[in-house]
Predict the 3D structure of the following.
Amino acid sequence: TERPSRSRYLGRLIVDLNYLLGRHQRSLMNATSATSPEARHSHLGLVSGYADRIRNLQISLGATALLNDAL
């Protein structure tokens, strides 16, 4: 099989990052509007999971220095 080009690979990572950022934002909004503590807790769990995945993807894209400054 043919190996994808680096630019195609990076393009895919950026699409994945945008997807994760959108899901993170939607989960935050759902947590804010949750009508029960259980629902809020569930949505905040998703927020945390998306944040971890976003951070890992940003690191793989070379954003380590920027992330270290944000800590």
Residues 29 and 62 are 29 Å apart (CA to CA). The mean pLDDT is 85. The helical segments are 6-33, 37-60, 64-70. Residues 6-33 form the longest helix (28 residues).
